[in-house]
Amino acid sequence: MPSSTIDVLSRHLEHVTLTDPASELPTLAQVLDAVPDPRHRRGRRYRLGPLLALSLLAVLSGATSLAKITRFIAGYDPDLRIRVGLPATIRLAASTLGRLLARLDSDALDAATCAYLAALTTCHPSETTAQTTTAPKTRLLGLAVDGKTLRGSRTGDGVTHLLAAVRHDTQTVLAQRQVDAKSNEIPAFTPLLSGLDLSAMVITTDALHTQHEHARQIIAAGGHFLFIVKANQPTLHRRLKALPWREAVLNDRTDERGHGRREIRRMKICTTRPGLPFPHAAQAIQVKRRRTDLKTGKTTIVTIYAITSLPLGRITHAHLAALIRGHWSVEALHHIRDVTYREDACKVRTGAAPRILASLRNLAVGLSRLIGWTNITAATDHYRSHPADGLQLLGLTT
After folding, report:
1. Which of 133, 174, 348, 369 lies at a 20 to 30 A Cα distance from 19?
2. In terms of DSSP bridges, do strands 158-167 and 283-293 run parallel, antiparallel, or are they unpaired?
3. What digits encode the pLDDT tens for the residues 329-365?
């Protein structure tokens, strides 16, 4: 096995340089092998870990269904299957794999894989972490919390809906929970973040999670929040709109072109007045977004209000504006899962299987980002054409 997962990752893209090798980390195959096996010991013909590892490699290579995953596994050389702990002549049907995934402990799989990604991310010297060593204050990282419905999993009893916490800079999922079918995302927020270290994090959310208890939980854990405010908090929203924004100075302005449009964003900050009806709110923010379609010339202007617990001067205005924009990294992750991995078209509906597949997709995207891939479609093409790189990534070969 390779001595360092980071060394393996750095060989896949020559232009990516990763330091601080995590030689103490287990291989990803070992992490997956530790997931509890729901099968009776007498009925097992092969180990769970290698099967999950090869399933992940299939997803990393672009497999979008159970049938494609099983065909991918069956296509491996028999000697390789023996080396990783599977029978040489395995005949795995898609229905058999589906029944196994449906019985897995999805919380245990998410806990293991998210912890692995979190550990691996600490070894990734992104621009954010590079600045941490020189800045007088700890550089704060953005952590976006948002939910996604797996539309293809809909049954008469409901549909699988997942709530995840995603780092802005690396697009890695650090925690994921399934929302109860008879509830919504709000009760899942507390258990989602309860096991994470928030001391250097700014939690960003959409308006749904602009809740008093969420703010108190984040502050008690040593973190900060940046919440969007809309009409679901009518009193707070009315107070924010009434602040003297015309007299406020312009704190940040960006002008960007891309995806067929031009977008100008203007941000103003107002130190909140006493009595603002939200705990730990230190600053109020107004963002005016002017978006012009370069093809049609149509322009739309949207005004967004937000509050944050960050005190005045804790971060720069540019960094605060970047945190607001960075929340959409979680939407970008959802887009990749839908477009590249065709998640909403996947009709897997039984038990934990929909969530397990979503977790494998999260893991595939996170690993690709940490390696240095900016285009996930290009990453799937690479690992489909170079399966040996994928085997190294999982720690199955040297």
Report:
1. 174
2. unpaired
3. 999 999 999 999 999 999 999 999 999 999 999 999 9
What is the length of the chain?
398
Condensed to tens digits (0 to 9), the pLDDT of residues 314-335 reads: 999 999 999 999 999 999 999 9
Q: How far is CA 178 from CA 48, 162, 306, 388, in A?
A: 22, 4, 27, 34
Two structure tokens written together for 391: 């085997």
193 in Cβ contact with 218 (< 8 Å): yes
Burial of 89 from C-beta contacts in 10 A (0-12 / 13-18 / 19+): exposed
Closest to 160 in 3D by CA, of 319, 355, 9, 12: 355
Pick the closest to residue 16 from 386, 367, 329 (CA basis).
367
Q: Which two tokens stand for residue 87?
A: 């029978």
CA dist 232 and 141 (Å) reads 27
Structure tokens at 49: 């870990």
Helix 212-220 × helix 185-193 angle, to 10°:
0
The pLDDT value given to residue 134: 40
Is the distance from CB of 238 to CB of 324 less than 8 angstroms? no
Give this prediction's pTM.
0.88
